[in-house]
Predict the structure.
Amino acid sequence: MKGKGVYLALTAAALVVLLGLTSCIPGQGGMIGSGGMMGGQGGQDEMMSGQGGMMGSGMMSGQGGMMGSGMMSGMPMMGGYYSGVLTPLSHNEAEAIADEYLASTSNLDLEIDEFEEYSHNFYISLIETSTGKGAIEIMIDRYSGSFQPEPQSMMWNSKYGMMGQSQTAEMVVTSEQALKIAQDFLDIVYPGTEADEIVSYYGYYTIMTTLEGEHYGMLSINGYSGEVWYHTWHGMFISEVEEFHDESASGH
């Protein structure tokens, strides 16, 4: 009986350890490796963990961890955070929030360009009407409606981001080079996807990606270092917010 009791105790302890390990597996709730970034792009997110060493400067090997463990880990729009909420925002509700954000900038030179719905959030890009250049990228949580600038728009934007006017020199990476860097990255991390539409912002580029001719996701390229920042936090692409584009055609 004593031996049986020891056996049962050891079995229970082993189960506790296994349960603890299971809770740390990437993909169980959206967490990816030690970088702290959330996501879920067709099961590919696990590939992002630990790739910094292989890709070198091409994968934000230094800044990725900073954003993940600090700023990014508390963002409400990340995968799994609102897993118990069943009803996402409607397009009309998201449009109203986007208009609210645009008005809050008090910048009459800005207008909304891209407006897309993903499984975790809505993605919105603002452009300058006077220059046609990208200005700010924001995301709206698909469930709570909270909004905030995208990480790369905060950290890399030399005009509207956290860096303010600190970087005024012209970007040394051309749009052609940015597309090449993006495709090289995609070939390794997201095989089969292709770099497509590119938009130039102050300090960086954002490039849309496609898979078999359909929109898939996006990534950003630093205009000075060539570093790559894939937008893992959006989740799966759902649709364009077409209603907004129809309305904006006659002026915002």
About this structure: The longest helix spans residues 2-22. Residues 45-248 form one domain. The CA atoms of residues 109 and 129 lie 5 Å apart. The beta strands are 110-118, 121-128, 134-141, 147-149, 193-200, 204-211, 214-222, 228-230, 237-240.
